[in-house]
Specification:
Blueprint (H helix, E strand, L loop, with lengths): L62 H26 L5 H22 L14 H29 L15 H31 L4 H15 L6 H18 L3 H21 L1
Helix pairs in contact: 1-2, 1-4, 2-4, 3-6, 3-7, 4-5, 4-7, 5-6, 6-7
């Protein structure tokens, strides 16, 4: 005759299974660490390891954002430039040219981002340590020095002495100089980095780092013209692509670009 089941018997997890001890707190989340143990997060899914180009709910920048951003950027610059030249009958001053350049970049980013992703994180709005910002300043100065060498080499080989950015020197007075520094040294670098690294590199990142770096850097350099500054701008673009890939943040790219531009404007103002 079998004994009746005791009320204080400890339940088991199955036949000959170990006892399940009671827990006083909440059940730990499964898979919160390596092999589901510990407090470290699980590794991210494939192709999302960098987070570059990704917004919420898995939305990702792609060719639609790339194409729309390019069209809007060219359209704003072309239409605004045509309207200003038609209205004034002359080439706009340096502050106006820089304002149009910044407006076209920011406008292109806004329209491209509004298509599907709608997330600033997708274009690199992420914090970085201050030491990274300091390194970006040093890199910007280093690239500026390298750019002077590349310009000398270019002129020695081609004999081309044309200055594609001569229009940026067409200003006079303290107020105009301040606008040139503010727009050309800060607004334009931020707009261009958001467009060429945030949208451009972020949209191409799905094809791999080499493709994204090569294409986005070449387009950025070509946007500044096939001239004396082409190689210098290309070096800056490749460096910022690497920075963006390594930090996943647009801010080091912006600081490097701004340092490069501000150094150029400082030399220009000293020479005037």
């Amino acid at each position: 005759m079998s004994e009746p089941a005791r009320e204080d018997a400890v339940p088991t997890t199955g036949p000959a299974g170990p006892a399940s001890p009671p827990t006083d707190g909440p059940t730990p989340a499964v898979g919160t660490g390596p092999a589901g143990l510990g407090d470290a997060p699980l590794p991210p899914p494939p192709d999302e390891d960098t987070g570059i180009g990704y917004g919420p709910r898995g939305r990702r920048l792609g060719l639609p954002e790339l194409l729309v951003g390019a069209v809007v950027y060219v359209a704003i610059q072309g239409l605004a430039g045509l309207a200003l030249i038609t209205a004034t009958g002359a080439l706009p001053s340096a502050p106006v040219l820089l304002a149009v350049s910044a407006l076209s970049a920011f406008g292109a980013v806004a329209v491209a981002l509004a298509l599907r992703v709608r997330s600033l994180a997708a274009i690199g709005f992420r914090r970085v340590p201050w030491r990274t910002i300091g390194l970006a300043v040093l890199l910007g100065l280093a690239v500026w020095v390298v750019s002077r060498v590349l310009i000398v080499v270019y002129v020695s080989v081609t004999g081309d002495l044309t200055d594609p950015q001569a229009a940026l020197t067409q200003f006079s007075g303290g107020a105009a100089a301040a606008w040139v520094v503010l727009l050309g040294g800060l607004a334009v670098p931020l707009g261009e980095e958001l467009l060429f690294r945030g949208i451009g590199y972020g949209s191409l990142r799905r094809f791999g780092v080499i493709v994204a770096t090569t294409v986005s850097s070449l387009v950025f350099a070509l946007a500044h013209g096939l001239n004396v500054v082409f190689l210098a701008v290309l070096v800056l673009a490749v460096l910022n692509a690497v920075l963006y890939e390594r930090t996943r943040s647009i801010w080091p790219c912006f600081v490097t670009h701004a340092t490069f531009n501000l150094t150029s404007f400082a030399i220009l103002l000293i020479a005037l």
